[in-house]
Design a protein that fits this description.
- It is a single chain.
- The chain is of the alpha/beta class and about 210 residues long.
- The protein has one domain (about 10-200): Glycoside hydrolase/deacetylase (TIM Barrel), CATH 3.20.20.
- The protein has eight helices and eight strands.
- The chain has helices at about 10, 40-50, 60-65, 70-75, 95-110, 125-130, 150-160, 175-195, and strands spanning about 25-35, 55-60, 80-85, 115, 135, 140, 170, 200.
- The strands form two sheets. Strands 1, 2, 3, 6, 7 and 8 form a six-stranded parallel sheet that branches. A two-stranded parallel sheet has the order 4-5.
- The longest helix is centred in the last third of the chain and has 20 residues, at about 175-195.
- The chain starts with 7 loop residues before the first helix and ends in a 14-residue tail after the last strand.
């Protein structure tokens, strides 16, 4: 469960980050990390359009550089954009100066007030600096659609098992995930809708210092 739904102690490492939205509201927030890429992004947009669902895409700056038309596709269909660094680098593995510079390079292309750290880890100094300029969005449910150890059906079961009011659900806009998502993303959306969940995206004025349990 520490992977699919982070435990309370992990959430307290970054107390001003947002891990879950309003727990009293029957709503979920779909997010997609790591794109955009031509092998998956157009299909994701088409599928979300079919169900009239909006989502938030945390994008890698270098992918935006290579495929700017895909970022515009995401934006033009009413989805939110988020910063996922320029090269998908982990904050623990590089210097803080390099990490912050990398995030800034991505921001020049993406221009978003939302930031999600790759792999969910940052040094404390990186977190403190980034939260001055961004709303840091983590997650309440990691579907693990990227895992070679999980089948598409097991990813679907993760969504069903761990989703709750206010869940921020993380999928991936990537080569490792797209084959599974083609099998189960429509099923996930339909199940969530049948359970009475509303699909939401993050408000433009969402404040980065909001604390949620």
């Amino acid at each position: 469960m520490i992977i699919e739904q982070p435990t309370k102690w992990l959430r307290w490492l970054y107390p001003s980050a947002i891990w879950r939205m309003d727990p009293t509201e029957k709503a979920v927030y779909l997010t997609f990390d790591d794109g955009p890429i031509p092998e998956s992004t157009p299909w994701l947009i088409e599928t979300l359009d079919r169900y009239n669902v909006k989502a938030t895409f945390f994008m890698v700056g270098d992918n935006v550089r290579k495929y700017p038309e895909l970022m515009e596709l995401i934006r033009s269909h009413g989805h939110r954009l988020g910063n996922h660094t320029y090269n998908h680098i982990g904050g623990i593995t590089v210097s803080s100066k390099r990490y912050l510079r990398n995030a800034n390079e991505a921001d020049k292309l993406i221009s978003s007030n939302l930031f999600r750290p790759p792999r969910g880890w940052m040094r404390n100094v990186q977190y403190i600096r980034l939260r001055r300029h961004y709303t840091i969005i983590m997650w309440d449910v990691v579907t693990r659609d990227y895992s070679k150890r999980l089948t598409a059906e097991e990813v679907y079961e993760n969504v069903k098992k761990y989703t709750r009011n206010g869940s921020i659900i993380t999928f991936h806009d990537s080569l490792r995930s797209i084959d599974k998502l083609k099998k189960i993303l429509p099923k996930c959306i339909e199940w969530l809708r049948d359970e009475g969940y509303e699909f939401k995206i993050f408000d433009e004025n969402l404040h980065h210092s909001r604390h949620l349990k």
